Structure formats: structure tokens, C-alpha cells
User: What shape does this take?
Amino acid sequence: MANVEGRATAITVLTPVKPLGRFVLPIVFWIGRHVSATLKKLQMLSFIHFARWIVIPSFPGGEKPRYRYLFFESNFNGLWDQYIDAFSEVVPERMRGIWGTSYGFPGPIPVEPFKRYIRANEYVANHYWSAYPGATTTEIIASQRVVAALEDLRNRADGMSPEEFHREYQRMLWSVQGDL
Amino acid sequence: MSRNVSGQAYALTVLTPITDGHQQALTDHLNALGEGDASPLARVPGTHIARWVVIDDLKFQGHGQRHHDKLSAPRLLFSSNFDGDLDGYLEGLRTGMAEDADAIWGHCRDYPGHENSGAFRAYMRAYQLEAALFFAAYGDQTVGEVKANVAQRRRLIDFALEGQGLDAATLKSRFLETF
Assistant: This one.
């Protein structure tokens, strides 16, 4: 299945937007870009690597459809069902803001009609590739913290007695134990 | 700052029209591309995660949507999440993929081929879409940093298990050797 590469899964969705979306979506995405709480909420969904939304008033090359289209893609680790469940549970108001002006959007809750809607508007990738297919988002973010602590100890280790080093090593492991 | 940028990560989205009669051949070619290191994307520096998707047509919802938009031609979506600036990446895409780029975008209208750097870049830019919102969970980390950090963390886990019970002097010397 081309939507999966190792532990990474792709979603690609394109939905037609009601005329009202012309005015609503610029505001919704302006808030998304400028109010840090929006992206922090996505950060809480700790299994998303990268996601993007695009409003398409006309397709490149000058093709102008009757409606605007909302493009969404996500790269996440885990199962498709879990991903949509989490979106529905954690950020339902943002889902309403983003897809509320798309034709046929049933709302994020209950989740089954929402899943059917995403499925109906999804395109399956023909080729999907990740530079690190075995790594999850949580692991990548945790690794950065671990390496910072490790390098800090490495930089100080030369000047320490073995006993001092042992204490600092234990302290370092303690500080990053949640990330190991 | 560009809406396509988050930290040092860039969201590239390119939507090119497929030449009449080429949709099936392109689809078959993409479906048959190798995975992992065998993918042509493995040769494009700075790529975190990328995809190609053949978009055969637009979906019709009903639910008050009265008109059914039809694309004048099916489209090829290429999207990539990569490190650094766009022009540098497009050059890496051109030189890294070389003939493999032609074997894909050669099925699209007006594709100039990979040999002329300026023409290739202009083509990709002409069919590029700008993100309204781009989220990158670790947009401050390059591909190289991600891989190195993940490997180092796994090394520390192994080391912590092996280091249990070592005396302080041996622990220190093994640590300095390993890290």
C-alpha cells in the first residue's frame, strides 16, 4: 500500500469549498499561522511529522474550477483510524473551522461520518517515501533532548574524576529517562 | 516569511497537468518505483518525507454542491517536506533524480526535461502551490540531524544496559570511547 512507508502513513485530501469559505478560510489560517496555540495543539498530537493545508482558487497553469478547493496532507505514524480519532477528539473545534466550509463535511463528532468523509475525499499515494521510515515523531523529538543531555555530559566528562563522572552520568540518565 | 516554511523545513507542493493519454503509464511507473534506498527520492538531498499522487479528477459531494468540477487533465501531485531553500532543493531534485525525473514528469505537459537547470526550476515553480498553513513537528532538525539523533539515542539505550554494574573508571572510559 503506497500510503505507508515503514511507520509513516500518508493522507492526501482535496475537498470543494462553499462560497463562504472564500472569506472564512483566510481568517482561519491566519489564526493558525499567528496564534501559537493552534500549532501547539497539533504538537500535542505527537504522531504528526508534517502537515499542510492549501486553499486552491485556481490550479497552476490557469485552470479555474467553479469552487475553491481545500488541500490537506499529513504524514504521521500509526494507523489511519487512530489518527482520525485523535483529530476528532483533541482538536474538534479546529476541524470545524478548517472543513466547516467544505461541501459535505459532517462535523468531527461523531467520528464515523467524519471518517467516511475523509475516505471519500482521499487520494491514495502512488509512491511515498521517508528518509527515516523506522522513526516515530515522538522518538525524533525525544532523541533531540537526549542528545543535548548526552553532549552536555560529554563536554564536561574529561575534567571529571571517575566517581564524579559516575554521579553525573546517573544524573543525566535520570533527567532523560522519560525520553529513553 | 514564506507560508511554506516552518523553522528550516520547507513544504513544496507541485501540481502538474498530465499529458493526454499518459495517466495510466505514469500511474504504472510510479506504482513500480522501488522502496527505501531504491526510490529515486533517496538520491535527493534534504528530503524528509515526500509523495507522488495521481489525481484523476475532483470529487463531487452533493450536499448542496450543485456543479461538478472536472479537471481539464488529470494532475500529478508532488509534495515534499525538505531542508533549506527551494532553489537549492530543486537543483538537488534535478541532479539527484536526473533521468528518473524525466521518466515521471515526462508524462506531464510542457515538462522541459532535467538537463536545463533554469528551465526545470521554472517549471516546478510555475506549478507550485503555496501553503495556507504548514506544520512541522521538528522543523528545526535537518534530515542528517534527525538520523544522527535517533541513532545516538538508541546507542545510549544500549550503553545504559551494558554499563550497569561497571566500576566508575571503566564506565567513564567506555563512555568516552562510545560517545
Summary: Chain A touches chain B through 78 residues (CB under 8 Å). Helices of chain A lie at 21-34, 36-44, 80-90, 92-99, 111-120, 137-157, 162-176.
